[in-house]
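Entry:
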Amino acid sequence: MMKGLRISSLLQFTLTAGELVVGEVLEIREKSVLIGREGLRHEVQIDKVAQIKISGEWLERLGFRMNEGFAYELNLAPGLDLRLINQSEPVLVQWAGVERHTSIWLPSRVEYVHEMQNLYQSLTGRELKLVESKHADN
C-alpha cells in the first residue's frame, strides 16, 4: 500500500474506457480502495491507483498561488503561510510568518498531492480539498 494513503486522499486511476481520472478515497479495503468521483463510486484495486505528482497546476487546484515568481503559498491563518519553494525535486515545504519574515523549515519533502493533503491536515486539523473543478481530471 502506498505510504500516507488515507480517507480523503486524492488519487488517479484509469476508467475501463481508458480515461485517466482523479477521485477522492472514501474507503480503504484490504486489496482495493473505494474512490468517489462526480457522485459515483469506483472500487479500484490498490495496484491500479496512482499517486498524483505535485505540479504548479495541482498546487493551484489546491488553493496555492504563485508568490513573487519563486514560491507557491497558501494562507493558513492571519500572518502565516505554507510555502513551497519549487526549485528542486522533491518540493521543500516552508512555514513562514509575515512579521519579521521568520521561517521554519519543516523536515518534509512533498512529492505527491496526498502527501500535501496529509501535511496540511497535520498543521491545521482541516482537509485540503480542490478549490476549483474547471480543470481536466489529469
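The longest strand covers residues 20-28.
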